[in-house]
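Note to self: keep these together.
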Amino acid sequence: MKTITFLLTLILILNLNAQNHKQEWNFYFCQVDGKEASIYLDLGLINVAPVPEMDHLFWVSIKMNNPRTDGMSSREESSKLWEIEDFIVEQLVSNHQVIYVGRLTSNNCRDLFFYLGKDKLVEKTLSTSFLKFPEYKFDHGINENDNWDLYLDFLFPDPETYQSIMNRRVLDYMEEQGDQLTQERQVDHWIYFKTESGRDEFEKEVVKRNFKITSRSFVEDTQDLKYQLVISRIDKISLNEIDAYTIELWKLAIKYNGDYDGWEAPLIVDK
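Structure:
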């Protein structure tokens, strides 16, 4: 009896941790099966996935009524699709132990993805939700997916795309503060290396690209990447331009057993 109680308590704690994680919703564009696609997901789940006991993937597909010619959602239909999505997510999350992980928009459909345990009543809740939108066609299904590969290998972006998402997040914040992002400025970059020789070789490469060495230090409180390098250069910071040089630095860091940790630039706000 004690063993069963312990297991149930552990399952509850794991589920609560998953549901109370720091959500980080964002999106990116890509191609799926050769077609234009948009993926919207909770990036924060990468810190807890896969979640034990939530080992079933539950998906809901909404057939668009007025898609664009490329299979993506049209401006005219977007608000209705958001309404349907919000309603379905709210019904499932409020009535069942489920985690909404993201959606795919492509090929005239919007597909919503959830993870849950063995909950047979979730389909009944979904059927009731469908009745609210009789003008739309739906499909759904459930299957075992204990390794969460749908989230980890399909929805979650590759490293380059992830870097671009992080860049866009910083630029969005800067624009919210009133920065027009039109002026060049000093951009600082942080990179960490496993070895001092790796840092030295990386340094030679970036100096050729007109970067200045701001600081070099040894960081005690990191496990493997103890050799820090901070570099800077005067650059433009539009998304396309900052993607180009940050991804170049990221690839170069990998070449020398390092990790590109991010960038920083001052706000420039016209008064």
